Write the structure tokens for this entry.
Amino acid sequence: MILPIPIQKLIDAFSRLPGIGPKTASRLTFYLLNAPEDLSEGLSVALHELKANTADCPICYNVTSLGRAECEICASPERDPGLVCVVEEPLDVLAMERTGGFQGRYHVLRGALSPIEGIGPEDLTIRELIERVKSGGIRELILATNPSMEGTPPLCISSSSSM
Ligand SMILES: [Zn+2]
């Protein structure tokens, strides 16, 4: 079946997302086609702003709103600056925050070492973490990376190099 180009384009775009196969992509596309205009417009604006209005926190590398000097967590006087949880991705910060039990701050590595995919220490924020520790004020690092082959090595490197 030959579909109109705008429909095929959206199906193809949805299909590139993780966990979405061609069937789900088609279902979402036809749902949006028949949904009220404000739903697709809201989605379109939110997608545009996602990239245009976000930035990396220069302290912890979590994602934050564009134009902020630091993220909401780094800026909060309620959060213990001496206690830092090291995670792989901003999504891990979200997961930790949902538990509501952690009152420290974070350091987001922005990935994990993967020689197979060509991701080395220089591709992650390990140097920035070392600098952060060297600059003082951190008394405890909690390593909360994934318990995978990729998740563990950065921590070994960061703790055995110059800390
Ligand atoms: Zn931050």
